[in-house]
Each structure stands twice: as C-alpha cells, then as structure tokens.
C-alpha cells in the first residue's frame, strides 16, 4: 500500500531520519523528519495556477506545536490548540526567511508549507527539524523551488563551537545561533550572544554552514528517489526586454530624479507620479500588472546602479555614514522609564514599566510552564509610514522584530536576584524609514537605564545592506527603507562596546560569501560604536535607584517553616496584610519575601507586620501587644504579629487584682514582658514586671 523512501545519517551525535511516502500522500510534498525522539511532519502544497492579478508570491509558512507531542493537554477552557504562540510565530518566520528567495522568478501560485510537531523529546528543539523538513518537502514536491537548503543550530562554550546543542546545553551556552543556507552560501542567521566578538560570530556562521552540508546531500539523495516531476513555468505574457526599454525611455529620467530626493515622502510622491505616468502612457501596449512588476525592476536598477557607480546613496551619504541621531530620555512624566530615539527618519518611543513578580508572563510551552520577567513589545502603527491602515493584534513582523530586540538586550539584564523587578518595555515606532527594530534596541537600552534598571552596558543596533552585481558589490551602513526593499541583504547587528549580542541576517539572493559577511560585521561594529557615543549624550548608565513612580521592592528572608504562618489558612493572613497596608507581597518556596509598594511607608508597614509574625519571643524582653480576650484567670495578649500569650491575673499589676476587667479590656494596647514558656510552648507574659523593669536592655518594641 505504501511506497516508503527513507534516508538517515548521524548528525551532531544523533540520528537524523527523513521519510516520505506513508503520511500525507495527497500533499505535493510530505516528509516526516525525526531527530533524536523529536518528530515533525512537513508538507508543501501549491495551487495549480496563480490567481489573476497577483503581482507577488503568496507564500505562507505555518509551524504548529501539538500538545500531545510532549504528552500534555492544552491549558485553558477549550482544551485545544488555539491561536499561534509566540514561538510558533517566530519559527514560522524562521522557516519562511531562507526558503522565500529560492522560488523561481515569476512563480505566483499560492503556496503553503505546514510543519507540525508530532513528538518532542524535550532535548532537541523542533525548529531545526522543521526547517530541514520544509526544505525536503519542497525539494521533492515538484514545485519550482531552487533548493534544497540546510539548517543548523550552533552553540559556543569554553572556546568551542557546538553543533545542534540540546536545549539544556543552549541554556549554558554563550551563543544560540540558527543558520540556514544552500551549498553555495548562507541565506539566514538568527542569534543571541553574550557579547561575543565579530570573529567568533562569523566563525559560528561558517561552522554551521559547513556542518549542514551533509543534510543538503541527504535531501538530494531522497529527491533522486522520491521527487515528483518538476512543474513547467509559464512564459511571461509580454516581451520583458521591450517593456524594460519602453519604461526606461518613458520614465527613466523621472525615476532617477525621484531617487535624488532625500526626503522620503517627497521621494515617494515623485516615484508614484512616475509610475502613474508609465501606466497611462503604456496602457495600450502592456497590461498594468506587467508594467507594475517591471517598474519595480527599473527602480532597483537605478538605485543599485547609482550606489555602485558613485558610492553615494539616496540621501547623499556614503556607504559607511550613519544618519543623524538624537537621543532623549525621561520624556514621559509618569512612566517609570522613557526614551525617544531618532535616527534620520526612523524614530521609536520606548517606554519601560517596572512591576513585581505577580506581573511575570506565564508561558505554557511544550517543554513545560515557566515565567518570563522581561517582556519587549514592538508596535508598528500605519501612521509611522504616513499611511492609514488596520490596527489590531500584532502581526508576524511585529512579533519577530520585538523578539530580535529582546535577544539584543537580554544578555545585559541584571540577575533577577539583584534587581527583582518584572520588566515590560513597549516600543512604539512613530516614524519609519529603515531599521525600526534597531532603533527599538537603542531606545530600549536608554529607557531601561532611565527607569533605573542596571544594565551591564548600553546596547545599540545597526542594520547593514548589500548591493551585489556581477561587476562588484557595496555594503551599506544604516540602510534606508528603499535600500532594504531594493537591496540584496538585511543584516542587523546589535551589541555593546565589548561585543555582539544579537545578529540577524536575511539574504534575497541565492547566498552571500564569507568575505561579504566579514566586511559587513566590521562596518557594523564601527557604526555601532558611533551610535553608542551618540546615545551617551543622553545617558551613559542606569540612574541611581528606580523612578519615583515605580514600586520599591524590598527583599527579606524568613525561615521556610514560617511561610505557612505568613500566608495563613487559605491565605487569610497575607490577604489581610495586603489589604491593610496596600503593599504587594510575593513569597517564594525558599523563604524569600518580596514586598513592593510605590509608597515606602506602606512597604515598611508590611515588612514590620511580617517580621512580627516570624519573630520568636525572647525571654525578659518587653513587647507592645493588644488584649484580644479577657477571662477570669487573666488576659490573652496578641504580640509579635499573630502570636498570643497569657498574662495571668497574678501578673497584671503590682497590687492584688480582684477582677481582670478592672485592669484591662479587650482592645487595649499594653506592654508585656516574656517571663517563660509552658510545656506546650505557650508564652507566659507579665505586665507587672514591666513596671519593675529598668534599662534599655529589657525593652524592645514589637517588630
């Protein structure tokens, strides 16, 4: 019934298996990939014909994690998988980025790649497995895909690179880098690093590229046995050479003039006018879709040719100069930390909020539930590019850019024990003309330091571009939006004066060489150091103490056996403390107590209450207490928080007492001295001996 094709190799110390022909046979391509005990089903399907009027390639990649893969039942009311998690969105982008440039020119058929995690061994991250599977599924599908690609994860510890480190090894590594590419070169890099040098980062990229070559060969071997017949690509419905010539003749000078305009909106207006002129003039000879496609090609030719020929860019800069920078902090009076970072026509308003551990984000992942105390949310409203558009939930791009900035900042954050705050940073991109994600990195660094978060060092980011033709190439520092759109590379580098903390690269051509990456990293370092110098004009380090509008968190430690006393039955005691003082209280299992409040008096009151609960009464020490019950033989007094003791009638006063109520009443505040403990540990108190006591050594107020 099944014609199964199977390939396997040893890779990074584990077995990698590709299998096709048994599952999902109606898809154009379907491959079951197993690495260790992690298994992902990857499918590729494309429509037989493009939709009329489509002038772009409609590719969708969906990576999905099924809870059953880790033996779990989904949380929530509905008990089934719902909207994509952040990780699912990020891995979908991770797969999309290296495969998108490899589809044949002119292919416009709707295409969908679906990668489903079926088994997770909690050691091997499914993302690399899914990337390999997506490449294999496309390669055998017959869809015009110019692959295959390979992918690998690279770690770095004790001066050694690690191929496909396990999830535990990644936690202990100085580097978490994912690289993908072809036989010829690298197409995509995504990473987080602990201030590593440019040389180490480049070495990691090339280490990964070398070590995923066996995977590419394995996919080729599978395709030789199992690939379907390649699809025929339809010939263009028009004479491309003739249309190119007519466009150059009709609007070439107009487009050249537009790309000498340094102001983005003015440039766009002139480009739009040139396009409208071309559509009107050539309407009788060519259809609008063909004109629009070739017009983009004309724009690219003019921009790229000018850079390679003159070394000058759209806004007049040379290839290495960074746009003018203005850094400002403390611009929002009630925010805990705020910064406005402007670089040319790109601007980010970044705001930091400090919270307690109760504000941590709970992540329900396949690997298990955990809490995240640093969140970075990136928003890209349509007004930032002068447009009116939909406002709603963040899209894949916003989630991806936010995570990139998160990775850039994360290695420099203080340890939670040293700075026990939950950090939420929101970046509102208020203007955009290239590399708003790197503006977010710079703004986040400033905003956190403005809030008093002690970063080890400031972090800055810069985006590099590439123009590559047969006769040469140029690497561009701090690219504009048009240079990103019409260029060949988007290479983002973030880090400190010490080293790199995040590296992200996307290539729009088939691959780039080690030489180009080395030049880009060197140029990026110079640019990053320049940006850090400009940022230092606003703030050189974290402010002393947190903002006055932020909560003050005080950490105290109590004996573990006293935790139950502070919490109380059903949480009664801790709720009372919170309600009475207005402070927030978090108690860890090890006895660490975090008390937070914007008003220090509220925090002090809660701390005093807690210390009273956990304190042990000391012999011959005088405490202040409250009479909670009057009986015939004496009075019960509450002191040291919830602790009670008995003042016997004989210990109420110097003279003989006939009736307890003659001396004290319920609710009275009294001073009592500890005079002993009975066989059951109950405290014996005296009011009479307080009157006799003299000297500071016998007097102590309840804490």
From TrEMBL:
Gene Ontology annotations of biological process type: mRNA catabolic process; RNA processing
Subcellular locations according to the entry: Cytoplasm
Reaction it catalyzes: RNA(n+1) + phosphate = RNA(n) + a ribonucleoside 5'-diphosphate
Species this chain originates from: Azospirillum oryzae
GO molecular function: 3'-5'-RNA exonuclease activity; magnesium ion binding; polyribonucleotide nucleotidyltransferase activity; RNA binding
Domain S1 motif: 620-688
UniProt family annotation: Belongs to the polyribonucleotide nucleotidyltransferase family.
Binding residues annotated for Mg(2+), in chain numbering: 484, 490
Coiled coil (residue ranges): none
PANTHER family in alphabetical order: POLYRIBONUCLEOTIDE NUCLEOTIDYLTRANSFERASE, POLYRIBONUCLEOTIDE NUCLEOTIDYLTRANSFERASE 1, MITOCHONDRIAL
UniProt name for this protein: Polyribonucleotide nucleotidyltransferase
Top-level taxon of origin: Bacteria
InterPro entries from the UniProt entry: ExoRNase_PH_dom1 (IPR001247), ExoRNase_PH_dom2 (IPR015847), ExoRNase_PH_dom2_sf (IPR036345), KH_dom (IPR004087), KH_dom_type_1 (IPR004088), KH_dom_type_1_sf (IPR036612), NA-bd_OB-fold (IPR012340), PNPase (IPR012162)
């Amino acid at each position: 019934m099944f014609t199964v094709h199977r390939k396997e190799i040893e890779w990074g110390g584990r077995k990698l298996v590709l299998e096709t022909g048994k599952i999902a046979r109606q898809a154009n391509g379907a491959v079951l990939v197993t690495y260790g005990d992690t298994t992902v089903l990857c499918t590729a399907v494309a429509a037989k014909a493009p939709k009329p009027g489509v002038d772009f390639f409609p590719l969708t990649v969906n990576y999905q994690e099924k809870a059953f893969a880790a033996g779990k039942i989904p949380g929530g009311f509905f008990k089934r998988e719902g909207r994509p998690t952040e990780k699912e969105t990020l891995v979908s982008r991770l797969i999309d980025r290296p495969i998108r440039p490899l589809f044949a020119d002119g292919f416009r058929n709707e295409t969908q790649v679906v990668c489903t995690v079926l088994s997770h061994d909690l050691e091997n991250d499914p993302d690399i497995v899914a990337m390999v599977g997506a490449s294999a599924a496309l390669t055998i599908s017959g869809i015009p895909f110019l692959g295959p690609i390979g992918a690998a994860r690279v770690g770095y510890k004790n001066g050694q690179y690690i191929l496909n480190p396990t999830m535990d090894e990644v936690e202990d590594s100085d580097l978490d880098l994912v690289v993908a590419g072809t036989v010829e070169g690298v197409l995509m890099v995504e990473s987080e690093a602990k201030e590593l040098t440019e040389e180490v980062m480049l070495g990691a990229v090339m280490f990964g590229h070398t070590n995923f070559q066996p995977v590419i060969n394995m996919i080729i071997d599978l395709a030789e046995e199992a690939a379907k017949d390649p699809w025929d690509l339809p010939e263009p419905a028009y004479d491309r050479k003739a249309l190119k010539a007519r466009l150059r003749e009709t609007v070439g000078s107009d487009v050249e003039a537009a790309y000498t305009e340094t102001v983005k909106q003015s440039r766009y207006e002139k480009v739009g006018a040139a396009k409208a002129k071309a559509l009107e003039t050539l309407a009788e000879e060519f259809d609008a879709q063909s004109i629009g496609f070739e017009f983009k090609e004309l724009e690219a030719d003019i921009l790229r040719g000018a850079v390679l020929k003159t070394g000058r860019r759209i806004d007049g800069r040379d290839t290495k100069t960074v746009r003018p920078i203005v850094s400002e902090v403390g611009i929002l009076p009630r925010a805990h930390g705020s910064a406005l970072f402007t670089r040319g026509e790109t601007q980010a308003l970044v705001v930091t909020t400090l919270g307690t551990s109760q504000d941590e984000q709970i992540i329900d992942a396949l690997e298990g539930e955990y809490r995240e105390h640093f969140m970075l949310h990136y928003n890209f409203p349509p007004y930032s590019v002068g447009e009116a558009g939909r406002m709603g939930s963040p899209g894949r791009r916003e989630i991806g850019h936010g995570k990139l900035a998160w990775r850039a900042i994360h290695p420099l954050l203080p340890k939670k024990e040293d700075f026990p705050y939950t950090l939420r940073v929101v970046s509102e991109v208020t203007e955009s003309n290239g590399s708003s994600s790197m503006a977010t990195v710079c703004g986040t660094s400033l905003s956190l330091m403005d809030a008093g978060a002690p970063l080890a060092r400031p972090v800055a980011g810069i985006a590099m571009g590439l123009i590559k033709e047969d006769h040469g190439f140029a690497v561009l520092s701090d690219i504009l939006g048009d240079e990103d759109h019409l260029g060949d590379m988007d290479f983002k580098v973030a880090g400190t004066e010490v080293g790199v903390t995040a590296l992200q690269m996307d290539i729009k051509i088939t691959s780039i060489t080690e030489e180009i990456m080395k030049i880009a990293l060197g140029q990026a370092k110079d640019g990053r150091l320049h940006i850090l110098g400009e940022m230092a004009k606003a703030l050189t380090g974290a402010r002393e103490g947190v903002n006055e509008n932020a909560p003050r968190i005080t950490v105290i430690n109590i004996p573990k056996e006293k935790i139950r006393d502070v919490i109380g039955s059903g949480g009664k005691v801790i709720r009372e403390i919170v309600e009475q003082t207005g402070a927030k209280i978090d108690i860890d299992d090890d006895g660490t107590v975090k008390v937070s409040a914007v008003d220090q008096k509220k925090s002090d009151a809660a701390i005093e209450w807690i210390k009273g609960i956990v304190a042990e009464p000391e012999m011959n020490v005088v405490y202040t207490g409250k009479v909670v019950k009057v009986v015939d033989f004496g009075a019960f007094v509450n002191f040291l928080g919830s602790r009670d003791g008995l003042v016997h009638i004989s210990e109420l006063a110097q003279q003989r007492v006939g009736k307890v109520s003659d001396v004290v009443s319920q609710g009275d505040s009294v001073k009592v001295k500890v005079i002993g403990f009975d066989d059951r540990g109950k405290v014996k108190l005296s009011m009479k001996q307080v009157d006799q006591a003299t000297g500071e050594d016998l007097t102590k107020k309840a804490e």
